Amino acid sequence: MALKLARRKLALRKPLTQWWAEALSRYSLEELPITAAIAIRSVGLDPIHNDPADRLLIATAQEHGLTLLTPDLTVAKYPNLKVVW
Predict the structure, then answer these.
(1) Which segments of the chain does DSSP mark as H helices, in order?
(2) How far apart (Å, rounded) are the C-alpha atoms in residues 55 and 16?
(3) SS3 (DSSP) at 83
(4) What residue segments make up the domains of the chain, in order of their start?
(5) Which residues, in sequence order, are bridge partners of residue 67?
(6) In degrees rounded to 5, what are phi and psi of residue 16?
(7) Has this prediction a pTM greater than 0.90?
């Protein structure tokens, strides 16, 4: 999100740190750490998607059995991954 803000592809009415804290609280979201297992899993993914950040998101979702919210159709090609947008 910080990169999107810096590139002016996203606009927020509040500083990102405040917006993020409020979003976590409002929607009862939990931040998940990037563990060694997730990092290793992201590197071992099939080369369908080359963006390292997206690969970390994919590996995190797979590791925890979570649904990933994304409009990226390439991400949806990964097996054992539920995607919604």
Answers:
(1) 2-6, 16-26, 36-44, 52-64
(2) 23
(3) strand
(4) 33-85
(5) 82
(6) -55, -40
(7) no
